[in-house]
Amino acid sequence: MMIPIIIRHKVNDYTSWKTEFDAFAETRKSSGEKSYRILHPSTDPNDLVLLFEWESTEKAETFLRSPELKAAMERAGVAEEPQVEFFKQVDFGKV
């Protein structure tokens, strides 16, 4: 079962952040990330909500503590400490 994670933080500039995010894709994938969605309020493109699915809690926690991620976040212009929450999926459907 995939582990849903929601991360929220502000960035200095979405376009610059997205370039670094995309460049880091292989590292994220090899660390256990399976999918992502990027959201932001219609009023602020630099206030990001990231929805991820990971292979396991352990892999996600290891990745989130990694110096490689910290360096990538600095390069990307993450402007504040991310808020990270792990979830358990209880239902899914389409109507």
Polypeptide structure, described:
With 95 residues, the chain is an alpha+beta fold. The protein has helices spanning 14-23, 25-31, 57-64, 67-76; strands at residues 3-10, 33-39, 47-54, 83-86. The chain has a four-stranded antiparallel beta sheet with strand order 2-3-1-4. Strand 2 and strand 3 form a beta hairpin. The longest helix has 10 residues, at 14-23. The relative contact order is 0.31. The mean pLDDT is 97.
Tags for this model:
globular; 4 helices; 28% strand; 95 residues; four-stranded antiparallel β-sheet; alpha+beta; Alpha-Beta Plaits
Strand content: 25-35%
Tally of alpha and pi helices: 4
From the 3D structure, determine the CATH topology. Alpha-Beta Plaits
Query: What overall geometry do the principal axes of the alpha carbons give?
Result: globular
Helix/strand-derived class? alpha+beta
Characterize the largest beta sheet: strand count, sense, and whether it forms a barrel: 4 strands, antiparallel
**Low-confidence parts:** none
* Architecture per CATH nomenclature, i.e. the level-2 architecture: 2-Layer Sandwich
Order of helices and strands: EHHEEHHE
Q: Give the total of beta strands.
A: 4
Supply the number of structural domains. Answer: 1
Q: What's the CATH class label?
A: Alpha Beta
* Overall pLDDT confidence: 97
Oligomeric state of the chains?
A: single chain
What percent of the residues sit in helical stretches (DSSP H or I)?
25-40%
| Cα Rg | 13 Å
